[in-house]
Every structure is written in C-alpha cells, then in structure tokens.
Amino acid sequence: MLTQKEQLRYSRQIMLKSIGEEGQIALRNANVMIVGMGGLGNPVSLYLAAAGIGTLFIADGDTVDITNLQRQILFTENDIDQNKADTAAEKLQQHNSDVTIEVIDEMLDNELCDYYVPKMDVVIDCSDNIQTRYLVNQYCVTHKVPLIVGAATGFDGQQLVVDPRNDESACYQCLFPESKKAPENNCQTIGIVGPVLAIVAGMQSLQAIKLLTGNTIHINQLNLFDGLSNQWQQFQIKKQSSCKVCGK
Questions:
Q1: Which CATH architecture has domain 4-236?
Q2: Which 8-state DSSP code applies to residue 53?
C-alpha cells in the first residue's frame, strides 16, 4: 500500500486509470539505470525521481564542464569539475528524499554492465557515444532487460525501445550495425539545441513509466524528431536474423 504522503505526492499520477495505486507501487518497486548524466540523463533523472521510481542507478564517469551548462539543467557553475553522477545524485535526493539513488561514478565497461544490468527493470541509454550504446545494448539483450535508447544532435532527436523479452524485438544493432567506419556524431562534433534534448528525454521518461506500469509500448518503432519543423515521424524496423547481438 501507499503511504499517505505518497498518495498526496503522486496524486496527479495516481488519478490516471492507466496508472492508479497499483502502477504507483510498481514505480516504487522499480530499479532503473540511467546511462549518462548529460543532456538527456539530466531531465530523464529528474522526471523519474519526481515520478517516484524506487531506486535510480545513475552512471557517468565524466565531470561537469562549462560547455555542459547550456543544456545539462541539473548542473550550475559551482559544479564545474565535479563528477556528474555524484553531483546529480545529491540534487535528485533533495528533489525527492524517498527515492534511493545509487551512483556509478565511472564509465561503464563489460564487468560493470554484467553486474548491474541483470538487476534492472529497465535501462535508459542517455549516453553520447555509439560504443557505449553498443555495449549497453549487448548486455540488455543478453540479460533480457528492456532498453530505452535516446540520442540528439543539432535540431534532431531519436528514440527507440528495445525489449529482449519479446523474441520479435529488434535491438539497437539491428538498426545501426557496428562498423569501424561509422562516424562519431555527438554534441561535440555537431552541436545541439538544449530543448531538443528535453523533448527526447521526455519521451524516454514516458516510455519508462508506461513500461513499468504495464501500459502498452511499441517495439520496432524508431521515433524521429525534427526540431526545425516540430514534427515526429515513426518508422517500423525489423529484427535482423543476421544481427550478431540478437539474431538467431
């Protein structure tokens, strides 16, 4: 059962028939990992802490830089040179003291992924480099943990749900096969408009809440956002039998 405090705090969420008290309890019982505490990870962590996720695991070995402040809304000038995950954890805890925050203050590697991913109900990839996305995708598929991928550069964003519990679900590598010639496009090389990150992060957060509360989510659907035209487009993708991660 929810406490009186929880019933009051999350009342606007609980009144939704698709969530209700049962859904709120499911959120409270959930373990969610956020990979990367940058422009996507900042708003995702805020939304999920506010929603009442029971335990948030936040992973980032990077430190706050002055160039981050244009879009990484949790951080201030006083946080420059501090570890992002540690700094974010302190601020999230102030926002909601009922949420448990577990910090992984280093970059994820095979050992860390193999240890943490099986403990999660969902992993949210907010990283800014493709190698981390491949790594996290690999371990989510291996351990059959749902993965919500987001990315954004310039005025454009993308979002995809991978659910390895469903045999028909394509994975990230089905969509973007690993290649040594793949370009490394990120905020440092292309630039980014901050609110585009907020839009993609909002979609990632929404997908996580829907998944955890038993609402329908769509696998094999790549959502693309164009910030210049203010339009979303959806493209259907297929699981690739030749995929070295999830293929048969």
A1: 3-Layer(aba) Sandwich (3.40)
A2: -
DSSP letter for each residue of 191-217: -B-HHHHHHHHHHHHHHHHHHHTT---
pLDDT single digits (tens) 67-77? 999 999 999 99
The answer to whether 246 is a known catalytic residue is no
CA angle 193, 72, 136 (to 5 degrees): 95
pLDDT tens profile 1-15: 999 999 999 999 999
How far is residue 81's CA from residue 78's CA, in Å, rounded to a whole number?
A: 9
- Which string of DSSP letters, residue by residue, matches 38-56? STTHHHHHHHHHHHT-SEE
Q: Would you call 234 helix, strand, or coil by DSSP? A: strand
- Give the torsion sign (CA, 95, 99, 105, 108): negative
**Domain ranges across the chain:** 4-236
Blockwise average pLDDT, block size 10, the chain, 248 residues: 96 98 98 98 98 98 97 97 98 97 97 98 96 97 98 97 97 88 62 96 98 97 97 96 91
- Write down the catalytic residue from 113, 171, 174, 187: 187
- For the chain, what's the residue count? 248
pTM of the shown model: 0.95
